[in-house]
Amino acid sequence: MIRAFLRALGPEQAGPVKRSLALTTAVSVLQGVVFALLVPVLTELLREGPRAALGWAAALALVTLVYALLRTLGLFVNFRVGGAISHGLHHRIGEHLVRLPLGWFTGNRVGELNRVVTDGVSRSTNVPVHIYPPLADAVVTPVVAVSVLFVWDWRIALAAAACLPVVWMVFTLSNDAVGRNDAARDAVSDEAASRVLEYARSQPVLRAFGRTEQGGQSLDRALTSEHGAARRLLLRIAPVMLAYSFTVRLTFALIMVCAVVFVLDGGLDPALAVALLVLVARFTHPLATAADQGAALRMATNRLDRINAVLDARPLPEPESPVLPQGAVVEFDDVTFSYDRKKDAPALDGVTLRAEPGTLTALIGPSGSGKTTVARLLARFHDADRGQVRLGGADVRDIGSEELSRHVALVFQDVYLFDATIAENLRLAAPDATGEQLDRAAALSGLDTVLADLPEGWNTRVGEGGTALSGGQKQRVSIARALLKDAPVVVLDEASSALDSENEALVTRTAVELARDRTVLVIAHRLATVAAADRVVFLEAGRVVESGAPDELLERGGRYADFVRTRERARGWRLTASDVTPPPASTATEDHENDPARARPLRRTRPGTSGAPGAVTAHEPS
Ligand SMILES: Nc1ncnc2c1ncn2[C@@H]1O[C@H](COP(=O)(O)OP(=O)(O)OP(=O)(O)O)[C@@H](O)[C@H]1O
């Protein structure tokens, strides 16, 4: 246990924890001495009267005083160490989590982490404060008392000493049973915690489809199995705990019988026998509670093992001499990657692609084809199994995570906002951003119109996870946050579920705008965005099956053309390769797919270029 404890706490906390445990052990030893001193005091009192007992009583009073002082000191020290453990563990877990690859944080880990950080840490904090002191009293005090018994009567001492190994054996059995069954219950509790979170999060979907009852079934099952595991734990440990308690009481009865026999034999002074039995009765009580404390310690050790498992998760290796990316070209060179090499087919299989600064690349393909995985490998959520992901000519593994994160801004679909103001949420990207910079990001992302409608503007609190804002509003905050970061590479995961048309068009517009001077990759679901891209990369089953300019691909009549046709049918769109005049000054025209009256070709050009013949345009069907 102590090894698991010290491993979890790390070297800084090891010293104070060892000192606290040593002090607690010393206090329990002293308690044994106090109990032992009762024997001469009582013997003299019963044999000769109070006067004869005075010397021993003074010694007892002195040792008791020292014991009380040390016990009080121990209490303070243990509470302080408990606080330091809580702080230290949170700190260590937190520091470790930020170094773990983002790919580690899958859905199930949320429930597990929640329990590790709350229940795990609080039980560990309890070890020096509430668990170890009574356990030391239960184990160390009797051992000291039995040792001292040898001074007064070796036969009684021998009888007590002979019982201790049996008591220890039953104690170990009970501890093992608790350990095994608690670990089994813990796994089931994790599952239940995850299901509770899932049930709460999926309420909108469940209600929308009238499946609240069915949706609750997996939660019901998880809770029922948690209840079953708790009952099994109780049923399996109750007999061994009872057996332990019985053994301790049997020990006391045995020693008492021995004492009576020796007194009747005339070999033991009755006064000494009474005193010895008082001593034995005194240490039997804490000994009887040892099984409870042992169980609590075993459960805490199980939690510590889980904390250690989190701390053992390997961070992605950081380069010893980080390389700075030279520019913002994104390259995937024959990249293969599997989430689970033993179980799954590769999510990416020999992917090669290149995205230049000042261009917009649309990643498209069927669901599960690997688009999001491309974005994740670029941001180094995971490392490629084979091949190289490069940014500005440098392998992302050689760049160093902080530098990489400065270079790549991600806007994912599942926008998470902190329960703070809109301004504070944006400043997460650039803590020192000026009001002017915030306003610029807001204007570019369309957040300015949202702010204008909110009475408290920038100071509006968004609620936990951004619940006080609509999906589109959250996305605007998220885009503005990415803009404020001012990273040369932006990855935008366009919402696959429908946002309102204004918000959808905004995402396309922002992507186009950003691509003027950045490398922009969009996981695109909308034809308008695809049409506005410079290059399209079509993925299927983790492979690039087609790539090139959208109009070229359309003319080629391959997978991309099929994709476009399917989408056109689904949305009543028509997308053609046509010769159109580039729009004047503006670099990006608006998407009016839902406004026939204003429908204009959607296309983009960069400064200094004119619309090339064959540019892809999107029209409402006539
Ligand atoms: N965290 C994960 N663990 C295991 N497998 C995963 C994980 N994320 C994705 N996959 C698998 O990897 C493959 C590629 O998934 P990816 O999310 O990259 O596809 P996608 O093209 O972005 O899909 P969609 O358009 O539906 O978001 C799929 O087979 C998917 O099941």
UniProtKB/TrEMBL annotation:
Residues 20-299 form the ABC transmembrane type-1 domain. This is ATP-binding cassette subfamily B protein. InterPro entries: AAA+_ATPase, ABC1_TM_dom, ABC1_TM_sf, ABC_transporter-like_ATP-bd, ABC_transporter-like_CS, P-loop_NTPase, Type_1_exporter. It comes from Nocardiopsis metallicus. It comes from the Bacteria. The lineage of its organism: Bacteria, Bacillati, Actinomycetota, Actinomycetes, Streptosporangiales. It is found in: Cell inner membrane. Residues 574-622 are annotated as: Disordered. It holds the Pfam family ABC_membrane. Belongs to the ABC transporter superfamily. Siderophore-Fe(3+) uptake transporter (SIUT) (TC 3.A.1.21) family. Keywords: ATP-binding, Cell inner membrane, Cell membrane, Membrane, Nucleotide-binding, Transmembrane, Transmembrane helix, Transport.
